[in-house]
Amino acid sequence: MKVVELYGRVRYAVQIEGLSRREAARQFGIDPRTVAKMLAFSVPPGYRRRRPPARPKLDPFTGIIDGILRGDEGRPRKQRHTSKRIFERLRDEHGYAGGITIVKDYVLACRLRQREVFVPLRHDPGHAQADFGEALAEIAGVERKIHFFAVDLPHSDACFVQAYPAETAEAFCDGHNAAFGFFGGVPKSILYDNTKLAVARILGDGTRQRTRVFTSCNPIACLPTGSVVRVRGMTKARSKGWSAGSAETCWCRYRGRRASRR
Question: Do β-strands 127-139 and 189-192 pair in parallel, antiparallel, or remain unpaired?
């Protein structure tokens, strides 16, 4: 626990208060190289190997295993080598004298690396996401359901939310106009969820048949959104504090910027 606290104090002193690494090392009584590690990791990284563990019996055969796995890539799943079959081939064809467990561990690690896929999360400037959500809010002293239109700019994390008595085409259009006025312009594109106000029907091939109101907006895409979902959750959490002067209009507005990602 003390180590974690020390990490936080050192990182705060250098990154926030502007203390140099040498001064931080002297002030906290630690080595400058330790300060560098603390700045590189937000929490203690624990033990790290300098090099992979030695496998004297298996290492001479890893190239053969890699070749077998590469040859299996284009084959049907049921015709691929199992770990046991790879072990048997190493033993019978190449004179491998080690155990089967280390072979299984190596094959499993190789297959997990092949499955690993990384999709970069990137939001270019000028693109938005929009969706409707529901929440309970107190209007003129009465708790009632509101339908809020949320627009989010993922690149800057700026967001706009405006609530209406119902999720209608009029609210859909008015919410766009209000959001554009708040942002001071129109985004290059907007991603929408499959709301009935935008999508009249999803055809068998996945094509979206748009509503007349939505078609007049010339939308860029109609897909499930991600960033605006967080805005909807934030709005639900804060809706208890909303209020409006008239129960008939039931229009509430939240304009803000979420905390920036780090």
Answer: parallel
